[in-house]
Write a structure and sequence with these properties.
By secondary structure, the protein is an alpha/beta fold. Helices cover 42% and strands 16% of the residues. The chain has a single domain, classed as Rossmann fold. It has eight helices and seven strands, in the order βαβαβαβαβαβαααβ. The chain has a seven-stranded parallel sheet, sandwiched between helices. Helix 1 packs parallel to helix 2 and helix 3 packs parallel to helix 4. The structure holds nicotinamide-adenine-dinucleotide.
Length: 247
């Protein structure tokens, strides 16, 4: 666990979507350990309850919210609840998205994966954001640095990167917007691959000899949100151990 908090303030609030598992869970836990109030959003209520219980047990602040990030009304209500309970979120982490294994039709999938991040962000932008506001969107090396199946997955991740650049340029006086592009990360959705030879080969091919742990994505997300990255705006940051250099 990192000891520093990158200059984040104890009265700051962050919304993390998809906070019950994997990268979102690790991000919520790290932000909680930094002293931020964490609004942990997920479809999986038991999962976010557990995350928030752990944050609170460690002396932090948090709230669990049952949210489908594709549902406008639910997202609006979740921002209201966050504001009333913890305060206006200075930070937003758009992490939730369907797994690449989901059997989705292209247009529907883009709406779910990229459209939801745009909608959540628009509702956040409608708040009176405190100075130093920042958003980090979670894309992927897929669609940004490599072409990978299925068609909709990389396309949605490229759209997320494009939307982030739009935010960085158009809203730069109010906030910073950056996008992370993880390679393979050892999260629950990857377990079926990692149990097979094809998944183990990813680790072996990586210059670092392994894939990433979710905490290694979370720390970069928190850095990009924080005042330590005060002049970093609009970057796509690969977090892949150098894997895409070897392709
Ligand atoms: N794991 C990887 O190798 C990897 C690589 C690159 C990018 N990513 C991206 O990172 C993000 C998180 O992936 P992960 O591997 O941590 O996944 P995960 O499956 O471990 O966790 C995803 C969480 O998001 C929640 N979620 C999914 N759809 C939701 C919705 N509509 N509303 C609210 N919550 C929802 C799930 O319930 C789950 O708790 C995704 O956007 C994914 O595309 C993952």
């Amino acid at each position: 666990m990192l000891k520093q908090n990158f200059g984040m303030r104890g009265d700051d609030v962050v919304v993390v979507t998809g906070a019950a598992s994997g990268i979102g869970r690790a991000t919520a836990m790290l932000a909680g350990s930094f002293g931020l109030g964490v609004s942990a959003w997920d479809l999986d209520r038991a999962g976010v309850d557990e995350v928030v219980a752990e944050i609170v047990a460690s002396g932090g602040r948090g709230m669990a919210v049952t949210v489908d990030v594709t549902d406008d009304d639910v997202v609006a209500a979740a921002f209201d609840a966050t504001r009333e309970t913890l305060g206006v979120p200075r930070y937003l982490v758009n992490n939730a998205g369907p797994p690449s294994t989901a059997d989705l039709e292209f247009r529907q999938a883009l709406q779910m994966a990229a459209g939801s991040m745009q909608m959540v962000t628009e509702k956040w932008l409608a708040l009176e954001l405190p100075a130093g506001a920042a958003v980090v969107n979670v894309a992927s090396v897929a669609g940004n640095l490599v072409g990978a199946a299925p068609d909709w997955y990389g396309s949605s991740k490229a759209a997320i990167a494009g939307y982030t650049r739009f935010l960085a340029v158009t809203h730069g006086k109010r906030l910073r917007a950056n996008v992370v592009a993880p390679g393979a990360v050892d999260t629950p959705r990857m377990a079926p691959y990692l149990a097979r030879k094809v998944g183990q080969a990813w680790g072996a091919r990586n210059p670092m000899g392994r894939i990433a742990e979710p905490e290694e994505i979370a720390s970069v997300i928190c850095f990009l949100l924080s005042p330590a990255a005060a002049h970093v705006n609009g970057v796509l940051l690969p977090i892949d151990g150098g894997a895409t250099l070897t392709l």
